[in-house]
Amino acid sequence: MSIMIKKRDGHYEPLSVEKTKKMVAFACLGLDSCDPIELEMDCKLQFVDGMTTKQIQQTLVQTAIEKVIQKVDDGFGNMVNRMNQDWQFVAARLYLFDLYKEAAINRKYKAFGYGNFTDLVKTLVAAGRYADFFLTQYTEAELEELGDYIKPKRDYLFNYEGIKLLADRYLVKGFNKEIYELPQERFMAIAMHLAVIEGDKKVHYAKKFYDLMSELKMTTATPTLANAGTPFHQLSSCFISGVEDNLWSIYDVNAKFSRVSKHGGALGIYLGKVRALNSDIRGYKNSSGGVIPWIRLYNDTAVAVDQLGKRKGGATVTLDVWHKDFYEFVELRTNNGDDRRKAHDIFPALSVPDIFMERVINREHFTLFDPHEVSRVMGFQLEDYYDDDTNKAFTEKYLACEASPDLHGIEVSALDMMKKIMRSAVETGTPFIFFRDTTNRANPNKHAGMIYASNLCHEIAQNVGFTDLDEEIIQDDGSIVTRTKAGDMVTCNLNSINLGQTSDEELEENIALQVRMLDNVITINQFPVPETRVTSEKYRAIGLGTSGYHHYLVKHKVQWESDEHLAVADTLFENIAYAAIKASMELAKEKGAYPAFKGSQWETGEYFERRGYTSERWQQLRADVAKYGIRNGYLMAIAPTGSTSNIANTTAGIDPIFKKFFIEEKKGSFTPKTAPDLSSETMWFYKEAHTIDQQWSIKACGIRQRHIDQAQSFNLYITPQMKAKEILDLYVEAYKQGIKTIYYIRNQSLEMDECTSCSS
Predict the structure, then answer these.
(1) Which residue(s) pair with 481 in the sheet?
(2) CA 677 to chain centre
(3) 680: Cβ contacts below 8 Å, ≥ 6 apart
(4) What secondary structure does DSSP assign to 410-473, as a single string?
(5) What CATH class has 238-362+415-485?
(6) N or C end of the chain: smaller count of CB under 10 Å?
(7) Around Cβ 684, how many Cβ atoms within 10 Å?
(8) Cα(62)–Cα(80) distance, rounded to whole angstroms?
(9) Mind listing the pLDDT tens digit for each residue in 707-753?
(10) What is the 3-state secondary structure (H, E, C) of 644-699?
């Protein structure tokens, strides 16, 4: 009696071992180091009656991925790791074959692989899974042309981790998780959406955008990857909002947070204006509960309104280091103290002025103040000032506060405060650090506002404002109209150049396309909050970043801890900056400069002077920007790119690799993972993050920062063996090198919670 195998459509047919052999051979095709017979033998496939084809496929996939790292005898009785990265691609192909079969069944076509793209679009529009612009803005002929342009073989660029992540999180599926869309169709749908406003050139640009994404030469932000082409196309990663010292503003920002989180965004909240614990309220002394109760409110919203049902909402709250609530705030996430004053799902960040770091270095005292009392007694709001190159406005105001006998400041040791920061960082990875004076000095749009805080991943540096309630009007029909005065609510529109897959010669052309893509995001985006549209159209801010930085260094045989690394970083990021600014200037010629351009450092040329851009090409670009303007008021920001760099098979952001190779256990299965392009040759150029002298990372970050108008999501890696003095030296050196922000302090013994939204 023959063994019967259950097919995906439910019917049974006799077992055909030859079909399995052909599939395995096809998966190994072109990968000479992977023997299909070896895979068949190692999987020890036991065929039983009633077995499903999906079970056969899963067994083959798991066997292939487990072969990436194997224990073998070195010939001397020692068991050593033998690695073969190509098995990751065999596993990816086997997994893809499974997707192809599922899609064919659900879409009712017979071919192996991809079906008709136009039919898919019509099906998903009718089902409410695609937006209707596919059919209203593109003709049938254009849909057919773009469908024919799809390159299915580019699926073979994915390794197993990348294709599984893309399929699990980002492919548009049916409401019951049925597979409809395939990887190349996801890229084409995104490309078509971002090109839809390009008029008679939309098909041309859709192809260009598709090529960049499908060849893995760039990564898009996760909201763009997930939402582009869908009816709810909120494409931005992060938002930043300021809170005034009143109940209306506190709850208004909470409402905004819920709407942002609902559509997959994270929020940065500046809380530095809110009065401290035991401050007065309407003259009644010792009445205020301080900032902690409001942070707990935002914490509850983060938990209640999750990001598209995939994970809890993400928010960072920034407080000035001189705020009287500093000591409670810095321990928000620690496990000691009163848990009723904790907020374990909020990521605290400190806004740090120059004078604090100077007093830490000089071992001097520092004074904490209540911002409400400062405003009432001194007649100014201390948080509204910063130290510029010539005007030390913040320091002057701060010293005036310290000299005032009418303020009830608390004098403490600056070094003791720094110890509190470091103790929390070692335990929780936070608080993040925002060097406010450094950031505002380099702000190209200081004529239009001030930067109070950064976003969750701390790569965004844009003007932040405060929305105020103007009036509430009761109409004759009983309806109520609320009028507000909108402040700048920052929107982060992100994507990243995949340095690990892009040659130096391709940079300028690819960057021009990516800047155009990001600028189009602003135009087509479905903003969750009205203020975000107002601010986005005012500055047309984007965040062009990089992933694959360590991958790039390794491919160019550059050691992390070397002067060559510093020189390469300087040249590479100057070229990226030049290409990005030039691309935005060319867009301004075509579509106009951003509305707040007049009076900016882009217009005056101060942006170029500050960075020492004096070569002939830079001087010409400076003149062109002054003449034609620039399309985007903010241009470059280096996001962490945690998940999307896995899809693109490269290293994350500007980070060094965590491990050269390791085995991840998840739900009882073991998945070997390796650094990109790891081989006997590249092994020695990859140095793991916690073994790197962090001073080299800080120097490289400072060099890159000169060329980046916003900031970098920059992590420091520490070990339990490091002394407190060594950790302090890292903070001090980061400040001295002109770094704008510090994201996580990644202790070797801790796991950190990444923000999905910023993983561009």
Answers:
(1) 473
(2) 23
(3) none
(4) EEEEHHHHHHHHHHHHHHHS--EEEEHHHHHHT-TTGGG-------TTS---------EEEEEE
(5) alpha beta
(6) N
(7) 11
(8) 21
(9) 999 999 999 999 999 999 999 999 999 999 999 999 999 998 755 55
(10) HHHHCCCCCCCCCCCCCEEEEEECCEEEEEECCCCCCCCCCCCCCHHHCCHHHHHH
Task: Print the SS3 string covering 150-173.
Answer: CCHHHHHHCCHHHHHHHHHHCCCE
Whole-number Å distance between alpha carbons of 287 and 291: 12
Task: Give me the pLDDT at residue 481, please.
Answer: 93
**Which two tokens mark 431?**
């608080």
Residue from 159, 443, 445, 455 carrying the catalytic annotation: 455
In the chain, where the domains are located: 114-215, 238-362+415-485, 492-727+740-747
Cα 115 versus chain centre, distance: 33
Cα 81 to Cα 72, 76, 507, 687, 690, distances in angstroms: 6, 14, 37, 18, 21
SS3 572: helix
pLDDT tens for 56-77 read 888 899 889 989 887 776 677 7
Between the alpha carbon of residue 496 and those of residues 166, 222, 546, 576, the distances in Å are 17, 11, 4, 11
Catalytic position from the list 215, 459, 531, 603? 459
Question: For residues 260 and 236, is the Cβ–Cβ distance under 8 A?
Answer: no
3-state helix, strand, coil in the chain (%, to 5): 45, 15, 40
Query: In CATH terms, are 238-362+415-485 and 492-727+740-747 the same topology?
Result: yes
Q: Per this entry, what is the length of the chain?
A: 760
Please give the CATH architecture assigned to the domain spanning 492-727+740-747: Alpha-Beta Barrel (3.20)
In the residue annotation, 457 being an active-site residue is answered as yes
User: DSSP string covering 328-371, please?
Assistant: HHTTTT-SSS-GGG--TTSEEEEEE-HHHHHHHHTT-EEEEB-H
Q: Are 640 and 743 in contact (CB under 8 A)?
A: yes
Vertex 490: Cα angle to 484 and 491 (nearest 5): 115
Encoded amino acid at 582, one letter? K
Name the token pair of 478.
């009983």
Helix (H, G, I), strand (E, B) or coil at 208: helix
Catalytic one of 401, 457, 492, 701: 457
**Does the predicted TM-score (pTM) go above 0.85?**
yes
Cβ atoms of 518 and 468 within 8 Å: the answer is no
